[in-house]
Amino acid sequence: MGAPVTISGVSGCRAARPRRPLVSNSMIPRWPSSGHAKLRMLPLARLALAVTLAALMSACPLAQAQSDNLEPQVRKFIGYMARTHGFDARALRTLLAGAQPNRDVLRAISAPATGRPWYQFRPLCVDDMQVTEGVQFWYDNAALLERTRHDFGVPEEIVIAVIAIESRFGRYAGGYRVIDSLYTLAFVWPNRSAYFRSELEQFLVLAREQGWDAGSVRGSFAGALGWPQFMPSSYRRFALDYSGDGHIDLWDNVADIVGSVANYLQKFGWRDGQPVAARAQLDGADPNPLLQLGLRQQLLSQWAQRGVSSAEDIGQGLPASLFSLELADGPEYWLGFDNFHALLRYNPSRNYAMAVYQLAQEIRAQRERPALAGSD
């Protein structure tokens, strides 16, 4: 596939028991959604899941532990890793023989939170606690966040909102063994197995590079890692040693976490000083054929010719896409600019990108409120 997509469970958007990763003695250092692709479950996929779960329930754990009984596709993968990356085939057989197909992983990926209607999804991500903790995080790390904004052009509140939604500042960074999650999705889940097999490859290489015990690292149901919930490929490409201590740590080093999120968004097109989204006004235009364009961008001046305008004063030369959000009493329409699309590269869900944007707005407004009150 093309550019890596962060796949996470947007763990900060659901009420789950807080878990911390298991860190081996060899590990110095753990939502991107992120970035977590939106996976909708079609009827055939539901049937496949039911068959898969039935097989898992009847599987003997002891048989799974026998490396001689590995499936042909797993043995083929091991051969590929030995040839391509120089892994010891025997050690890899032992590791993968100990991987356990996980029914909870299959259930979670078949019903992602981002697939809910917007009016149900937003309260899971944007709430008073997220705002309060976001403001406190900003106060606690103001100099770091200012440095990050200067280096990458990504506003402080956007970086904070991504971290909040992905893992609620690390409290919900994932309690699944990554080797189990990626094994399940690469060799058991019937959808996107090639993608997850690639992520398993990247995880094993990453663990070797970082000196991790690959069997002990914990993450999201999809194998995403750390506070920002980077998939292994994204960890290898975009995670930074922003603290300069010689290690990249997305579990315990706030500088690395903040710098890596900003670096990811900049690499995927974040434009300093430009808008993220704006309410759209449809002046008598039929929205249906316009929405069928998908997220194809056009200049605002071109949208105006179709009867669509921004509710805010924004230059007509900016490209934007039109999309809708599902409210309880009907849709509302929005324009998404280049920075909205950068958020979509973290997690390709409009709900996700809008939640980051609106949480970021509320965090900034709350942070600025005391200063405004004190100036009266």
Could you give a short description of this structure?
The chain is an alpha+beta fold and 376 residues long. The protein is built from 17 helices and seven strands.
Assign the CATH class of the domain at 11-113 and 172-267.
Mainly Alpha
CATH architecture of the domain at 11-113 and 172-267: Orthogonal Bundle
Overall form: globular
Which spans have pLDDT < 50 for at least 5 consecutive residues? 1-8, 15-65
Task: Please describe what this structure looks like.
With 376 residues, this protein is α+β, with helices and mostly antiparallel strands. The chain has a domain at 11-113 and 172-267: Helicase, Ruva Protein, domain 3, CATH 1.10.8. Helices cover 50% and strands 8% of the residues. The protein has a five-stranded antiparallel β-sheet with strand order 4-6-7-3-5. Strand 6 and strand 7 (330-336) form a beta hairpin. Helix 9 crosses helix 13 and helix 16 packs across helix 17. It is globular and about 65 Å long. The N and C termini lie far apart (55 Å). The relative contact order is 0.17. Residues 1-8 and 15-65 have low confidence and may be disordered.
